[in-house]
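If you are new to this repository, start here. Below is one unmodified record pulled from the training split, so you can see the exact layout before writing a loader.
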Amino acid sequence: MPTDALNIERREKTLVFRGALTRPTAASAWQQASALLAGIEQLDIAAASAIDSSGMALLAALSARLPNAQIIGQPAGFIELRDAYRLDAQLQMSVN
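And here is the target side for that same chain:
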């Protein structure tokens, strides 16, 4: 899989992201993931090879549509981006 590729697969109530959650993949990922959201309870990013601010924005937007969804996995840079954008564990804006 090229480093800029992203695959999104639905496994029961989980969306599994494999590959780069980055600017080059964000727009198509939004369209693909949006079509699969009904009944989703988890966003699994453990197999994400990279994440940047566009990928974080994508996850935060998906999380906003799935307020009770759990985030599984922490690819390199995830915690730093989450903290920089002051997001909580469900990628909602933190008040602290």
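Two things worth knowing about this chain: The radius of gyration is 12 Å. DSSP finds three helices and four strands in the chain.
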